[in-house]
Amino acid sequence: MSKKDRQISFNAFEMNCISHLSPGLWRYPNDQALRYKDIEYWQNIAQIAEKGLFDAVFIADVLGVYDIYGGNDFGALKTALQVPVNDPTQLAVIGAAVTKHIGFGVTAGVPFEHPYPFARRLSTLDHLTKGRIGWNIVTGYLPSANKNMGSSELPHNERYDVAEEYMEVIYKLLEGSWEDSAVILDRESGDFADPSKIHHIGHHGKYFDVPGIHLCEPSIQRTPVLFQAGNSTRGRQFAATHAEAIFIAPPTKEYAKIAVKQVRDSLIQAGRDPYSAKIYILATIITDENENLAQAKYNDLLSYSSKEGSLVINSGWLGVDLSRYDLEDPLSNIKSNAIVAQVEALSNSTTESGKEWRLKDLLKLTGLGCQGPKFVGSPTQVCDILQEVIAYSDADGFNLAYATTPGSFEDVVQFIVPELQNRGVYKREYTQGSLRHKLFGKGDRLDSSHIASRYRVGGAKSTINDFASTGRFKHNKEQDYVI
């Protein structure tokens, strides 16, 4: 199959709030973002995504407020820019209750969720969704979150150092604590489980001490599908080690190619197949029956966009107060401890006219769907662009940010999916099984090439030897353990 004929995947990119990446559009006629508090709203989103055979509903999150712009949170509150924001994890179960196939990628920040209870939350979600859960691993970038958690803001690279140990604890709990045969259900003896097959992980590290067992029996996937959005140099190293699905937000097609190659190269450097992780590009699709209607819709949508909201979110992403910038000021020399990849993208790419990025260019780009590209046109035109971007960049699909919700997703399902299917570049049915099996066709569990496998019983990094100190096991050098 040529690059032009590669299969294309979609995620619905959502957030449990009013204004995610299109500030001001909650005012648009028939937009339902204000219903974010309703179970029925989220069930409808899940059903629309499943009707369109999307891979997942990818649910973003931040724990904190965008208060860099103007030095306060007024702009975020006035424009409802990702505040108020409710917890994302419950949405997976709500959506799974009315669907059979669609996956759910929930975002949770490593600095704000201790791995011991969080591992239980992941297993619970995987049980209740029947193996359709993914976890978007983030290290946090809003200073307000650290302040309200009573912790100091860590340097960018150290955030990933914490995340590395966090993942070690998660793998030990999810992969190495309960053996598959631990649950025996012996009705005669009354034994539910064999304690000799449930292991204390004995973790004592720089950032975490977790000596005990995982609180849940193994779920379908054990470890959920691992999403990651780190595209800085350190972020790519982390993603290449752990991630199975990687999200990038390049401002141009040209930079998308650079970003994808950086990710593929990082996977190779980590000793993995460069295609062992799927790469999704942030994008917003505006379409209708024909080009004129699509363009008119785009212009109408853009008229509702909030300039202040765009300044608020970009200040948070870039880590600088854009209220201090004039429209003609360049954005190429920003130093940031926020989303470093976004700073690098602006510094290492140019606008469509080949000029360096200035504030006015950023505002023009981010009025709808923030920093991802906008594809506007008839179904034929948009599908041509989608195929071109996939072939040019070597990405796998798109994280679709909405202009209006659920309208933007409904348009994609009505107009774009059938056209892609007719071209033979979009699936016509779901693969049975877990989210991981749907994405990769290799079973429900992480395979033996993934770092997590080393923490299973008998794995290279298993802590089974540590169990001897508990008195429950006697170690035998000829075997992993002897009861």
Could you explain how this protein is built, in words?
The structure is a single chain. The protein is α/β, with parallel strands linked by helices. It folds into two domains: 9-302 and 372-455, TIM Barrel (Alpha-Beta Barrel); 306-367, no CATH class. The chain is built from 15 helices and 13 strands. It has helices at residues 39-51, 74-79, 89-96, 115-128, 143-148, 156-176, 233-242, 253-269, 291-302, 307-318, 340-347, 359-365, 379-393, 407-422, 435-440, and strands spanning 9-15, 56-60, 103-109, 133-138, 183-186, 191-193, 203-204, 209-210, 225-228, 245-248, 278-287, 374-377, 397-401. The strands form three sheets. It has an eight-stranded parallel barrel, surrounded by seven helices. It has a two-stranded antiparallel sheet with strand order 5-6. The model is unreliable at 465-483 (pLDDT under 50).
The fourth-level CATH homologous superfamily of the largest domain is: Luciferase-like domain
Quickly name the level 1 CATH class of the largest domain.
Alpha Beta
Helices and strands: which structural class? Answer: alpha/beta
CATH architecture of the largest domain: Alpha-Beta Barrel
Helix share bin: 25-40%
GO molecular function: monooxygenase activity; oxidoreductase activity, acting on paired donors, with incorporation or reduction of molecular oxygen
Pfam families: Bac_luciferase (PF00296)
Binding site for FMN: 61, 107, 156, 160, 232
Protein name: Luciferase-like domain-containing protein
